[in-house]
Amino acid sequence: MDRHSSIREGHGQTWAKAILLGEHSVVYGHPAVAVPLQDLRMRATASPTSGPSTLSSLDYSGPLDQAGSRFASVARAFEVAREFSGGLVQAFDITTVSDFPHERGLGSSAAAAGAIIRAVLDACGREASSDELFALTQMAEQIAHGKPSGLDAAATCSPCPIRFQGGQMRPLSQRIDNAFLVIADSGIHGSTREAVSGLRRRYENDPENIGPRINHLGTLTQIAIMALDQADAPTLGAVMNEAHTLLTELSLSLPILDDLADAARRAGALGAKLTGGGLGGCVIALVAGQPATRRVRAALERAGATATWSYRMRLSQVGE
């Protein structure tokens, strides 16, 4: 009997993430805090087929091996999942559907890779531990981002906020009640690879100027972790604002991102900052209550955001 005769249509799901604090400084050994956005989902389907494997994702539909460099990490995710499952000879029609845009710092490449990996494993009836799923997603992320920290691979499947440092993830308590994150899309594609490599060059050329700013971002992240645990929304907002200033000084922001952050603060946000790699992508704003959330979203749209979303931060309590 063919050991792959039981292969069926498989499904996988992940979601978006927003980095509250610590983007970029996490690459230099500091912690980062990411919040999963479970309402913004990435879904993948893997349907067995007799022909060559195909991909339907974003604006592409065709043979997977002809999808080009833009989908290199997706192709790698498919390869590692098929190898892990033992189904190397089985072809699939792969489809992804996303609630959120790509190349905006919301973790789309890791979410797509993770969803495809889960769909292929599901199709092959292959179980995988959370550590194995993380390792497989990281293999795909290396194609997308060179030397990824692992934050996106962890956060796009986490049920609660996470602290990430040195390749290690642990869940965080989030005790701020009635807190919302408003996410505003600048409409500009960001490139994490470009942003990370550019900062690395600037750090190597001018460590005395760049190093202290990176270290300060790490300190702000530690404060944010305490603020989440102590239900201190004003402090969390303040460190978000300060982090945005530092990221701007590190040449990782753009005028539109600065304008969106300013607009959110003027409309009543407790804090606002770019999220993710920068050089485009999204701004996130911390807001208390639904009425203020509506005001902030409207202000961001007037300030030039091409789309906005709001996400109510879920309470979580993690034992020590």
From TrEMBL:
Q: Which GO terms describe its cellular component?
A: cytosol
> What GO terms in the biological process aspect are recorded for it?
isopentenyl diphosphate biosynthetic process, mevalonate pathway
Signal sequence, start to end:
none
Q: What EC number(s) would the UniProt record show?
A: 2.7.1.36
Q: Tell me the route in metabolism or biology where this protein functions.
A: Isoprenoid biosynthesis; isopentenyl diphosphate biosynthesis via mevalonate pathway; isopentenyl diphosphate from (R)-mevalonate: step 1/3
Q: Which residues form the GHMP kinase C-terminal domain?
A: 227-304
Q: InterPro entries from the entry?
A: GHMP_kinase_C_dom, GHMP_kinase_C_sf, GHMP_kinase_N_dom, Mev_gal_kin, Ribosomal_Su5_D2-typ_SF, Ribsml_uS5_D2-typ_fold_subgr
Q: Which domain of life is it from?
A: Bacteria
Report the enzyme's class at the first EC level.
Answer: transferase
Q: Which UniProt keywords apply?
A: ATP-binding, Cytoplasm, Kinase, Lipid biosynthesis, Lipid metabolism, Magnesium, Nucleotide-binding, Transferase
- Pfam families (alphabetical): GHMP_kinases_C, GHMP_kinases_N
- Name the SUPFAM superfamilies on file: GHMP Kinase, C-terminal domain, Ribosomal protein S5 domain 2-like
Q: Where is the GHMP kinase N-terminal domain?
A: 75-156
A GO MF annotation of the entry reads: mevalonate kinase activity
PANTHER family for this protein: MEVALONATE KINASE
Record protein name field = Mevalonate kinase
Which species is this UniProt entry from? Actinomyces oris
Upper classification of the source organism reads: Bacteria, Bacillati, Actinomycetota, Actinomycetes, Actinomycetales
